[in-house]
Specification:
Strand content: 15-25%
Structural class: alpha+beta
Helix content: 25-40%
Largest sheet: 7 strands, antiparallel
Radius of gyration: 16 Å
Number of helices: 8
Mean pLDDT: 88
Shape: globular
Oligomer: single chain
Low-confidence stretches: 1-6
Strand order of the largest sheet: 6-5-4-1-3-2-7
């Protein structure tokens, strides 16, 4: 499968430290990814503050400037896709909005029992980049790129899913962030079965939402 048609998430990491390209109608560089399964896109996005009415309009990302009124805008524009069981949220910004919700302990955004969540946030506002994972039991595991989730400070993993994710990530190495990003994104996609259509992302064809900054 060609990169333009899918074939994994490594391409997102290869452009992770590019600046956002304002000539594109969609996204290529500096993309943060949040994905969740066990709930619907509408439920999860509204829990993070998205306007249900705007979600129902399913405005393609490339058209938000033309079809959203000024008072429709909130803080962060994103695009999202339903990929099998996963809802995938993409943001070309300093960090992932879900990560800020988690830091600020916004209750509605915290994963619930039965929801599996992964977040790759570049944290360009406050390095280093981080990978977060919730294994369907409501807990969230948080690590820097290149670190293990399970260590002496947090050894308990009743689900076994965190250890399996660690095993998949273990060979990515500890090189600089710009070298790790393609491998982190690739493993997230391969291990969890997440993909997004490269061309649709760059051309802004996926539906859009606007999320308030929780800070």
């Amino acid at each position: 499968m060609s990169e333009a048609q899918g074939g994994g998430l490594a391409w997102i990491g290869r452009h992770a430290y590019d600046g956002p390209d304002n000539t594109l109608p969609g996204m290529r560089g500096s993309i943060n990814l949040t994905a969740v399964r066990g709930t619907t896109a509408h439920d999860f996005l509204t829990r993070m503050g998205a306007d249900p009415g705007l979600l129902a309009r399913a405005v393609p990302f490339r058209e938000i400037g033309e079809r959203w009124a000024d008072d429709d805008y909130k803080d962060w524009e994103c695009m999202f896709a339903q990929v099998g069981e996963w809802t995938v949220i993409l943001e070309s910004s300093q960090c992932a909005t879900w990560y800020l919700n988690w830091i600020e302990e916004v209750g509605e955004a915290i994963p619930r029992e039965g929801e599996e969540l992964v977040c790759v946030t570049l944290n360009k506002h406050q390095a280093p980049p981080r990978l977060l994972y919730s294994p369907r039991n409501g807990e969230v595991w948080n690590r820097e790129f290149g670190q293990d989730f399970i260590d002496a400070y947090r050894p308990d993993d009743p689900t076994g899913r965190v250890a399996a994710f660690d095993a998949a990530l273990r060979d990515i190495g500890v090189a600089g962030d710009d070298h790790l990003a393609p491998r982190v994104y690739a493993v997230v996609g391969e291990h969890l079965g997440i993909d997004v259509p490269h061309r649709d992302v760059e051309e802004g064809l996926l539906p859009s939402a606007a999320l308030p900054d929780p800070t």
